[in-house]
Amino acid sequence: MSYLDLSIEEIHKALVAKQVLPSELVSEAYDRAQKYQKDLNAFVSFRIQALKEAQNLDGKEITNPLFGIPYAMKDNYSVKGELSTGSSNILKDYYPVYDATVVKKLKEAGAVSIGKTVLDELGLGGTGTNGNTGVVKNPWAIERISGGSSAGSAAAVSAGIVPFAIGSDTGDSVRKPAAYCGCVGFKPSWGRISRFGLFPFATSLDHVAYFTRTVKDAAYLLENLAGKDPKDMTCSIKPVEQYVEKLNPELKGKKLAIIKSINESLGNPLVRTNFEQVLLKLKEAGVEIIEEDIDMRLLKAIYPIYMVISSSEATSNNANLDGIKFGPREKGTDFLDSIIKTRTVGFSELVKRRFVFGGYCLAKENQKELLLRAQKIRRLIVNEVQRILAKCEAIFLPATGSIAPKFTEKNDEKLSVAYLIGENHLAIGNFAGLPSLTLPSGFVDGLPVGVNIMGKAFEEQEVLNISLGIETLLARYKGQIAKRGGE
Amino acid sequence: MVLTIEELKKITKSLLFTMSEEQYLTLQQEFTLILEQMKLLGAIENLDQVEPLVFPIENENCGLREDEVEKCLSVDEVLKNAKESMMDMVKVQKVVG
């Protein structure tokens, strides 16, 4: 057992007790990242300077629980003077001139980034198979996907390379890979953490989110990352709470809602059994479960709404990627031809297809029937979620409808409820901007699965407390690191 | 409903990129499926009185910052990522003929 295999809290205690040095931790994390790269392909780039930065921390006063802790950063955050690609050829030589607020806060806390992780190009995807540096493999079974878009960050935490990694979540891009990779994935409320310096994908849905191995570590990170930011006008000015100090795993007397039609839509019956087993444990622990439902027509609309809104916003947000001010530039016969050639070779086919759909939704003749309609139905769904949340502390959900698929698996059932609802329901947390946490709940066919807690806006403490209670009930899955070949 | 390749090409032209003929065929097939999925939006009625939801959380929690004098990026920093520059400006190919 290495200190690197422990939680942030345990590593912090070892650092304070001088049982280990920041340089030793960072060096080992860096070595593991290099060693596993061939198998997992989790990283776009490595920060050799991390070793020097960690040496400079050795012997210094430890002022923060994140001090001296190695971590990994999804490659869609700006880091001053360091390659930041969005896993896209159109930014393959981009060096930002400023730090994202999240990056700045982690630097100030003394955490040390060992590298940037692979994502589905520009965040548009949910499999980890569409980064320009290749597919990311699941540390539990390398013939399977890690999930995406925060694929490399999920794999890095799951494989034991780092105790935490930063991702971003627009539909379920942290919470779903967390389930596939057997770790904790937390997306706080929209506006709780500044998005300044996060490459925008879909502004009304994007959240800063992250992976840890324990719920308590998720609370440590939130305390460090949350808070107002004058550089992000969508960032909340609500004060940051003492999430760690107020953690309480007591479940007795809590009221949680389940959504019947979502649970009945899961494609893999064993995943549903796992969810029901956890539900039983919650009832035994004194949790009152209320069964609620949402009109199937609304639930079936989750995926189409996500597609319309995210594709429209992505098409608009990425219109600035033209090779003029930054990024590679192709030679053309004139200015416009140069932009067309740059965008033609810069974007992958899959990203272009999403942009074409976004362009179609934004076209004047389609806006009313697609974009406006999607935004209206988004409100109806959010109203339904709020109606349910008014009756309870949080909603208890399965995190996925299946285990991590194999790379060779094809889903030809994209009009089925198993796909439209079972594989996409977590997007309601993005529609409503709610805090939502996935944690490991066991194994199906030797592969990790997870459950999800979705709470009221800015009630992160409640979500963390309930999640901690569940983690305590399911103690054997706490802090797990991938074992090749499954459980 | 099926979009023609010509209609798809019109969209890609407006987005300033091109695709290969093979890619357009894949796109056409995918579009047919997506438009089937979009019919699910049409199944929900009585939306006339519903306000569209654009941002998930109303801006009541957000505030305007005070104006503060700050040093901005230098011209050199701004131009650092541009492929070509000249006399403190981004250099591009001819815009008008």
In short:
The complex is a heterodimer of chains A (487) and B (97). With 487 residues, chain A is an alpha/beta fold.
Structural commentary:
The complex is a heterodimer of chains A (487) and B (97). Chain A is of the alpha/beta class and 487 residues long. Chain A has a domain at 3-256 and 436-477: Amidase signature (AS) enzymes (Alpha-Beta Complex), CATH 3.90.1300.10. Helix content of chain A is 39%, strand content 15%. Chain A contains 17 helices and 13 strands. In chain A, a hairpin with a 2-residue loop joins strand 4 (137-138) and strand 5. In chain A, helix 11 crosses helix 14 (364-389). The longest helix of chain A is centred in the C-terminal third of the chain and has 26 residues, at 364-389. The two termini of chain A are 18 Å apart. In chain B, strand 1 (85-86) and strand 2 (89-90) form a beta hairpin. Chain B has a domain at 1-44. Chain B is mainly alpha-helical and 97 residues long. Classes of the chains: A alpha/beta (487), B mainly alpha (97). At the A-B interface, helix 10, helix 11, helix 12, helix 13 and helix 14 of A face helix 1 and helix 2 of B.
How is the topology of this model organized?
The complex is a heterodimer of chains A (487) and B (97).
Chain A: H1 8-16, H2 22-40, E1 43-46, H3 49-57, E2 70-74, H4 101-109, E3 112-117, E4 137-138, E5 141-145, H5 151-158, E6 164-169, H6 175-181, E7 184-187, E8 207-212, H7 215-225, E9 255-259, H8 260-263, H9 269-284, E10 288-292, H10 296-300, H11 302-317, H12 335-346, H13 349-362, H14 364-389, E11 394-398, H15 417-422, H16 428-432, E12 436-444, E13 447-455, H17 460-473
Parallel strand pairs in A: 2-3, 2-6, 9-10, 9-11
Antiparallel strand pairs in A: 1-3, 4-5, 6-8, 7-8, 7-12, 11-13, 12-13
Chain B: H1 5-14, H2 21-42, H3 75-79, E1 85-86, E2 89-90
Antiparallel strand pairs in B: 1-2
